[in-house]
Give the backbone structure.
Amino acid sequence: MNRGRRIVNALMTGVFSVAGWVAIVFIFLIFLFTFKETVPIFTDPEVKEEANLHKFFAEQEKGETVSDRYIWQPTSDRPKVSLWPIILGTLKATFVGLLFACPVGVAAAIFSSEFAPAKLREVIKPVIELLAGIPSVVMGFFALIVLATWLQDAFGFTYRLNAINAGLALGFALVPIVYTISEDGLSAVPRSYREAAYALGASRLQTAISVVLPAAAPAVFASFVLAFGRAIGETMILLMAGGNAALTSFSLLDPLRTLSATIAAEMGEVVVGSAHYSALFFMGTLLFVITFISNTLGTWVIHGMQRRMGGSAS
Amino acid sequence: MKLVARIVSTFLLSVAVIACGGREQASGNTSKGSNTNNKPLTIKGSDTMVILGQRLAEEYMKKTPGAVVQVNGGGSGTGIAALINGTVDLAQSSRAMKDDEKQKAAKARGSEIVEQAVALDGLAVFVNAANPLQSLSIAQVRDIFQGKVKNWNQIGGPDAPVVLYGRESSSGTYDYFREHVLAKGDFAPAVQTLQGTAAIINAVGRDRNGIGYGGIAYAKDVRPLAISDEGKAAVAPSEATVADGTYPLSRKLFFYHSQNAPERVTKFVQWTLTPEAQALVTRVGYFPLNQQ
């Protein structure tokens, strides 16, 4: 190897490794910043009095219904900072979103990998993946203006904007995630599995459901976990389509407010360093930890599957 | 290899540090050398006042060659916070600035804060056009927004649940409503908070059972209710009733800037009080000051 090439090699390797490290350092610094802004909840006496773990999670108010006992109203004269209405809202939207996206995404994946003719498959795959490219603000606007009216007209909901409306809109955004990863997993199942099933007299449907799908189960599961991570963090769709009422309620027909939407809506006016500010960052840390865990779990399962199948999944 | 990486990363880091430092210095310069004429006048604050601010700015720019005025929304609280932080020249607010905010701003900007009312606004309570209700007392509106009235038939309307729409907490309209209608009490948690009065009008317009509040100027395809104060007759919001003070929910809209603000700021504020600018105020749907 001549000298010039060696230098270029060294330089390029350097550039790439720096780029890699920069990404890692960014993530780490962002987490550090988020966490640092949360710390006053545990240390600053003034902040601690207004917002602390006990106030976030324990029952604070007296009242007949849960929605009177757990209240998020940080700007009131008597601030109330229960996180339950918001955590509940996040979980409700995520639940509906996954309930819609998981079956649809997996069914679409089974269709395109097992049943669709090769030509059709070449169309379905990019189109569904294109769905992931629709900006979430567009999805949210659609749900706010069109979907909410359809649903209300069809089912007579009291609230136009509710968990079902928001969850469905979120589901549209999750379908491509579930589809893409499941489809990759299903396609990675070796041909020999299918041939063995056919040799035993199984139909195409039986093969798909009882042989290929179980073999790809880790990929399908991983797609659910990653979709969960996306759902928890999604902001714009839920801010627009969820109705934004911090209401402690288990009903899917009530409006809801999510962690990410609360941060987005309230961070603009909050006084830096106040209890409200730290509480918002606590929510951010919570989101960070949840997505981190779910993404790690998803990646870990994919790797496990790759080892088992000896194929490639992504 | 490691050495190269270290050199490159050191280089990148120092670039980043220099870039940050440079920006800070630049912004420091802006506040000092601010009497240059073509520096944009930045205005931020109340979402209620965005349209008004933009119309005023357009007209002002037409009249004053070389002047550039940028108007942004975000809510009164956001605008005041920006004034305190020194990121805007002028804050628009649909509520009066609180004393502690004024002190903070005075400390940060190095001089007193000047308050200038620019227009009067009536705050209307809207219902869907299909709602038969015509008027409510302030106490009834309070009960509705605090969640004590859950069905329209409790206040003489049809048998249907009440669906509440309101503003997010950074809004001056939210503050005004909480102070003057809810008597500083809390909104019911079931209030759906939307971004801007336009969004509330839109939602109430689509929701037969909806009720919301906001500046009169926005009322379109929804019906503003007549409002009665304790023991008095209900008054419908209109230019006449807001101007003579008989409509109970009216408020002033303010501009705030620091006393030592550059000329481009004070000139603009003074201009907004001329008959010409006040005529514009009326055209946008608010009410001119000082009619009495």
Confidence is low (pLDDT under 50) at residues 17-36 of chain B. The two ends of chain B are 80 Å apart (CA to CA). DSSP finds ten helices and eleven strands in chain B.
